[in-house]
Specification:
The chain is globular, with a radius of gyration of 34 Å. It starts with 5 loop residues before the first helix and ends with a helix. The chain is α+β, with helices and mostly antiparallel strands. It is built from 24 helices and 35 strands. Strands 1, 2, 3, 4, 5, 6, 7, 8 and 9 form a nine-stranded mixed beta sheet that branches. A six-stranded antiparallel β-barrel has the order 13-16-20-19-18-22. A hairpin with a 2-residue loop joins strand 28 and strand 29. The chain folds into five domains: about 240 residues, BirA Bifunctional Protein, domain 2; about 140 residues, no CATH class; about 100 residues, Beta Barrel (Elongation Factor Tu (Ef-tu), domain 3), CATH 2.40.30; about 150 residues, Threonyl-tRNA Synthetase, Chain A, domain 2, CATH 3.30.980.10; about 110 residues, Diaminopimelate Epimerase, Chain A, domain 1 (Roll). One of its GO terms (biological process) is alanyl-tRNA aminoacylation. This is Alanine--tRNA ligase. It comes from Lacticaseibacillus camelliae DSM 22697 = JCM 13995. Its EC number is 6.1.1.7.
Length: about 900
């Protein structure tokens, strides 16, 4: 077997399929673009769905890629098995309606066994096929695989519900019995079984059916090939390692972690090895995810990042690493991946900053989690109980980032179990909420046979013309080609059109279609790209439309003008944000409407008011500079040399359109623009907010809408001035500040009076403590303002050491405040203020809690106060 590095193996795979006529697609961002069904890109085909469902026809139906991917459905298994990873690379070759089984099976065998390529031992390769797929079995035999090395497995059918599906074939490598975790005669010890001897290295899916909503499977119009080969597994086979973690993809990270640990070394087995593996895997995942724009948070993919960083930190402590360390591994990951992912080292400073910040934040949370767990264990032992409740274990995981296995380990050291069924119940409830949040969007749509079949060319003339005569070449209604339509909604394709199709956040043009008599025959309400790239017009038909006739297409000029100005504003805003916030900021989405624009961007932390003002100023300065706006098509290499900015997450062909705004901005772009920034007139930010993990959103207006916005604000300020009875709006800030000072003074007076009333109400209440069993108790209802006054009285009670237990209540406006205090002597005898208030709070229709020495509750039943006080007396008497 050849000695190859991971980088050589990856490149060899891509070179092989390039030699078979495939286009090499670059690895896409881990953050899905326009795909709500995925949290992360989780396979090579995930970025190609638009080709497989027929939404877009690729220029080359043969595609290959090495796609970075994340899967987090079984994080708990990472480090415990030889293969489980959260971040991995999937090598794939794909056919979109081109070649099929008879080509792909011999190619797979050639790549694996040819001395020119991997040169694997043929005798160690096995394949599995779907029992009904006789063609695949015969092709493997013709290729040279003996029948004894071909297994029929019922599970070899790829199906995700509605959409493309079909049988698949898997290729396994026999690593030998010494690698196995099962006896050789075990029923699972075969290619495809649950064992570690036969390593699956390639899965080839023959996507030939459409799975319909009614459950039927029908032939697809175009049969496809979708394959996946895990790079980490293949490298492990070729480098002869026991697990993925001894390969050159992971071992440098492990060695770097050894140097950071308290003298720990990898390879001794047990918990330490698991910790090293978890850290190595998670270091790769968070490095790449943050590099692609994800940031830690409490939801979605940000939550996954937070969990991984915390899990790595916990395992670092297991290795004796007490301080932040994960961020130090980012350059190690970058060096390993430099040959194919140079952007990691380019962005390492920002990635390290994010990870370090999260590690420091978790250091405090980790201590709090340990405190909660230790208190829980102490309470269980005090009550002769032996099981940590599932809800508590889940809280430790969900709130403090404690993996449940860590909770189990700490508890087991104290002779305590964990209610895993309760934990799983809480976990499943969380998964259900997550699934509901993602919605019911299909993972991959079905192919539209009618639109896919239309290949008549169509030219876009709307860069320069907003009215044009064009021949109606295709007329579709009710998903069928028609010769004529007289009403309803239809879809039209012309040989040329000035109507812009929605793309890159810019909405589609609207307008009219006019016949030779000047009559409007249809209203254009939307324009999208058809599968083969033509502009597909959705229209409301008002008169007869005939295929083959020539019509005049008229774009709504005022709408196009407004949209174009707002599109230019997004370019100016994008550049200004980079200039003010830093180069790590990049576009995460946009919407360009006629009356406003919306721009989403990545940023670690909030944008300050001063930064927003600076961004707004920078944009307006470019408008007032009257910069020329030009656009030109050029080879992508030339565009990159000129410094053109690519839209994050997008893929581009060999020729790109570049829009240049004076000396300020140059971007890859397919939208429309005015010819000079002066057309925008004015730019005004109307709102800024966070919309997700590390994603901020700016809303803004330009031109007349910006003037209208400022005028409205001026009118509201003038109205405020009239209300405040001042002559000029310039005096509003000073008047408001004066009123605030008066209000503060009034509030202080009120607080003083309330304190005086509280002291008067409290006069003598500490002088008549009553007996309640072995305790002394002061239990009173008072007429004070609220909880603050009760807490002040509790402080006096504590200073006076007036009784063992204090229970105070007050009611105002139908709301009840209840407070319980317990002295040190009472606590020593088993009284806990938190427990007592939980017992009596239902009487006032509420609930509460707190510390052993002080607790409080709120309720809405003032009439229940006497009962609550009585219950407190009875509870103490019973102790």
């Amino acid at each position: 077997m050849k000695k190859l590095s991971s980088g050589e193996i990856r490149q060899m795979f891509l070179d092989f399929f390039k030699s078979k006529g495939h286009s090499v697609e670059p690895s896409a961002s881990l953050i899905p673009v326009d795909d709500p069904t995925l949290l992360w890109i989780n396979s090579g085909v995930a970025t190609l769905k638009k080709y497989f469902d027929g939404t877009v026809i690729p220029k080359n139906p043969r595609i290959t890629n090495a796609q970075k991917s994340i899967r987090t459905n079984d994080i708990e298994n990472v480090g415990k098995t030889a293969r489980h990873l959260t971040f991995f690379e999937m090598l794939g070759n794909f056919s979109v309606g081109d070649y099929f089984k008879k080509e792909v099976i011999p190619w797979a065998w050639e790549f694996l066994t040819s001395d020119k390529w991997l040169g694997l031992d043929k005798d160690k390769l096995y394949v599995t096929v779907y029992p009904k797929d006789k063609d695949a079995k015969e092709l493997w035999e013709k290729t040279g695989v003996p029948a004894s090395h071909i297994y029929e497995v019922e599970d070899n059918f790829w199906d995700i519900g509605e959409g493309p599906s079909g049988p698949d074939t898997e290729i396994f490598y026999d690593r030998g019995q010494s690698f196995n975790n099962l006896p050789e005669d075990d029923p699972e010890s075969y290619p495809g079984g649950e064992n570690e001897r036969y390593e699956e290295i390639w899965n080839i899916v023959f996507s030939q059916y459409n799975h319909l909503p009614d459950g039927r499977y029908v032939d697809q119009p175009h049969k496809n090939i979708d394959t996946g080969m895990g790079l980490e597994r293949l490298v492990s086979v070729i480098q002869g390692t026991k697990t993925n973690f001894e390969t050159d993809l992971f071992l440098p990270i492990i060695k770097a972690t050894e140097k950071l640990s308290a003298g720990k070394t990898y390879g001794n087995g047990g918990r330490d090895d698991v910790a090293f593996k978890i850290i190595a895997d998670h270091a790769r995942t968070v490095t790449f995810a943050i590099g692609d724009g994800a940031l830690p948070s409490n939801e979605g993919r940000g939550y996954v990042l937070r969990r991984l960083i915390r899990r790595a930190a916990v395992n670092g402590r297991r290795l004796g690493i007490k301080d932040a360390f994960l961020y130090k591994l980012v350059p190690v990951v970058g060096d390993i991946m430099e040959s194919y992912y140079p952007e990691i080292n380019r962005n390492k400073a920002f990635i390290q900053k994010v990870i370090r910040s999260e590690e420091d934040r978790f250091a405090e949370t980790l201590d709090a989690g340990l405190s909660l767990l230790n208190q829980t264990i102490a309470d269980l032992k005090a009550n002769n109980e032996t099981v940590v409740p599932g809800a508590t274990a889940f809280k430790l995981f969900d709130t403090f980032g404690f993996p449940v296995e860590l909770t189990k380990e700490i508890a087991e050291d104290q002779g305590i179990d964990v209610d895993m069924k309760g934990y799983e119940k809480n976990m499943e409830a969380q998964r259900t909420r997550a699934r509901a949040a993602r919605g019911d969007a299909q993972s991959m749509g079905s192919q539209d046979k009618t639109l896919m079949a239309i290949k008549t060319p169509s030219k876009f003339t709307g860069w320069t013309d907003l009215q044009d005569d064009a021949k109606l070449t295709d007329l579709i209604q009710d998903d069928q080609e028609q010769d004529r339509v007289t009403g309803g909604v239809a879809q039209l394709i012309f040989d040329q059109t000035p109507f812009y199709a929605e793309m890159g956040g810019q909405v589609a043009d609207h307008g009219e279609i006019v016949d030779g008599t000047g009559a409007v025959v249809a209203k254009v309400t939307d324009v999208q790209h058809a599968p083969n790239g033509q502009n597909l017009h959705t229209v409301e038909v008002e008169n007869t439309l005939k295929k083959g006739e020539t019509y005049t297409l008229k774009v709504d000029v005022e709408r196009r003008k407004k949209v174009s100005m707002n599109h230019t504003a997004t370019h100016l805003l994008d550049q200004a944000l980079r200039q003010v916030l830093g180069e790590h900021t990049h576009q995460a989405g946009s919407l360009v409407e006629p009356t406003y624009l919306r721009f989403d961007f990545t940023n670690f932390g909030q944008v300050t008011e001063a930064q927003l003002r600076e961004v707004e100023t920078v944009v307006n300065q470019q408008i007032w500079r009257q910069l020329p706006i030009t656009w030109k098509e050029m080879p992508i290499g030339e565009a990159k040399k000129q410094g053109a900015i690519a839209m994050f997450g997008d893929k581009y062909g060999e020729t790109v359109r570049v829009v240049t705004i004076g000396d300020f901005n140059r971007e890859f772009d397919g939208g429309t623009h005015p010819t000079n920034t002066a057309a925008l007139g004015l730019f005004k930010i109307t709102g800024e907010s966070g919309i997700g993990a590390g994603i901020r959103r700016i809303e803004a207006v330009t031109s007349k809408e910006a003037y209208d916005y400022l005028t409205k604000q001026q009118d509201e300020l003038a109205q405020t001035a009239r209300t405040l009875k001042i002559d000029h709006v310039d005096g509003v800030p000073a008047k408001v500040e004066s009123l605030q000072q008066e209000l503060k003074a009034s509030q202080k007076t009120v607080e003083g009076l309330q304190a005086k009333l509280a002291n008067e109400a409290a006069a003598g209440i500490f002088d008549d403590a009553e007996k309640a069993g072995q305790f002394t108790l002061i239990a009173k209802q008072l007429k004070v303002a609220g909880m603050k006054e009760l807490r002040d009285l509790a402080d006096q009670w504590r200073d006076k050491d007036a009784s063992d237990v204090l229970v105070l209540a007050t009611a105002n406006g139908g709301k009840v405040s209840l407070l319980v205090g317990a002295s040190k002597a009472a606590i020593a005898k088993g009284v806990k203020a938190g427990d007592l208030i939980k017992a009596i709070a239902p009487a006032i229709g509420g609930g509460g809690g707190g510390r052993p020495d002080m607790a409080q509750a709120g309720g809405k039943k003032p009439e229940g106060i006497p009962s609550a006080l009585k219950q407190a007396q009875e509870a103490l008497a019973a102790k």
